[in-house]
Amino acid sequence: MTAVATMPETRGKLTEGAALAPLVWFKSGGAAEWLFEPRDIDDLQQFLRDLDPAIAVWPLGLGSNLIIRDGGIRGVVIRLGKAFAGIDADEMTLRCGAGAPGISAASKARDHGIAGMEFLRGIPGTIGGAVRMNAGAYGREVCDILESADVILRNGDLVTIPLAEMGYSYRHSALPEGAIVVGATFKGDAGDPAIIGAEMKRIGDEREASQPLRSKTGGSTFKNPDGHKAWQLVDEAGCRGLQIGQAQVSEKHCNFLLNLGGATSAEIEALGNEVRKRVKENSGVELHWEIQRVGEEA
């Protein structure tokens, strides 16, 4: 473990050996060497400035789209709480803290008649995670609405990065290692709140009907390869319901993996890799993980 003396003083909450499984959707995985919950942006900046540059930092949002391996995460996991969850609307612009859930951002946009952000209703994580990975759903993605992102670099500097410099591609950005998104500015179009709300309801109803939302899952497991739907490739490879230990491919939606109760992260990841192998053998198409896998093996 990192020596206590190396941890900077902070106004936030710093916990050694913090369990991470309760904080992620899969409810599996090991502990963080350190878990830091900053009081505000200044607190986070000062902490990173004072932290030994050799110590890795890793941001955690709502814990969707994520497998934390059973050996846990070395260094400092940074979790942004309510102080980073504010949302303000001004004309057709939405300014969101990185800790705000996607559904909250979509609802704020609806209330202010800002169209084009309805798809955020279908993003299960926080704005910070969505900005970092260029999250998308229902035909749109973050790069379609982002104006700029506020980011704290590993050295503690706060910078604003415009859309053109985000290096976006499908489910990917070029943000540097250790950079933490703390806010984002989105631009939409004028719309009727009733029409926006109806579209959000359609998205919500469709997710409810087609996805295993009330299970221990991580969201969409694999990226859609060019010209293909990941779920269909998984289904055609005979993987619907496939199980390793307590990890299972969802019967309801083949691009979701489930923790049936006591699955280890190793079982979940092994199941995903077995699915990838079978899809490649069946179709010749290679599936790439959309779910992030982080941390150490047990």
TrEMBL record:
<keyword id="KW-0131">Cell cycle</keyword>
<keyword id="KW-0573">Peptidoglycan synthesis</keyword>
<keyword id="KW-0521">NADP</keyword>
<keyword id="KW-0963">Cytoplasm</keyword>
<keyword id="KW-0560">Oxidoreductase</keyword>
<comment type="similarity">
    <text>Belongs to the MurB family.</text>
</comment>
<feature type="active site" description="Proton donor">
    <location>
        <position position="220"/>
    </location>
</feature>
<keyword id="KW-0132">Cell division</keyword>
<dbReference type="InterPro" id="IPR036635">
    <property type="entry name" value="MurB_C_sf"/>
</dbReference>
<feature type="active site">
    <location>
        <position position="171"/>
    </location>
</feature>
<keyword id="KW-0961">Cell wall biogenesis/degradation</keyword>
<dbReference type="InterPro" id="IPR036318">
    <property type="entry name" value="FAD-bd_PCMH-like_sf"/>
</dbReference>
<dbReference type="InterPro" id="IPR016166">
    <property type="entry name" value="FAD-bd_PCMH"/>
</dbReference>
<feature type="domain" description="FAD-binding PCMH-type">
    <location>
        <begin position="27"/>
        <end position="191"/>
    </location>
</feature>
<dbReference type="InterPro" id="IPR003170">
    <property type="entry name" value="MurB"/>
</dbReference>
<dbReference type="Pfam" id="PF02873">
    <property type="entry name" value="MurB_C"/>
</dbReference>
<dbReference type="InterPro" id="IPR011601">
    <property type="entry name" value="MurB_C"/>
</dbReference>
<dbReference type="GO" id="GO:0008762">
    <property type="term" value="F:UDP-N-acetylmuramate dehydrogenase activity"/>
</dbReference>
<protein>
    <recommendedName>
        <fullName>UDP-N-acetylenolpyruvoylglucosamine reductase</fullName>
        <ecNumber>1.3.1.98</ecNumber>
    </recommendedName>
</protein>
<feature type="region of interest" description="Disordered">
    <location>
        <begin position="206"/>
        <end position="227"/>
    </location>
</feature>
<dbReference type="InterPro" id="IPR016167">
    <property type="entry name" value="FAD-bd_PCMH_sub1"/>
</dbReference>
<dbReference type="InterPro" id="IPR006094">
    <property type="entry name" value="Oxid_FAD_bind_N"/>
</dbReference>
<feature type="compositionally biased region" description="Polar residues">
    <location>
        <begin position="212"/>
        <end position="223"/>
    </location>
</feature>
<comment type="function">
    <text>Cell wall formation.</text>
</comment>
<dbReference type="InterPro" id="IPR016169">
    <property type="entry name" value="FAD-bd_PCMH_sub2"/>
</dbReference>
<keyword id="KW-0285">Flavoprotein</keyword>
<keyword id="KW-0133">Cell shape</keyword>
<dbReference type="Pfam" id="PF01565">
    <property type="entry name" value="FAD_binding_4"/>
</dbReference>
<feature type="active site">
    <location>
        <position position="290"/>
    </location>
</feature>
<keyword id="KW-0274">FAD</keyword>
<comment type="pathway">
    <text>Cell wall biogenesis; peptidoglycan biosynthesis.</text>
</comment>
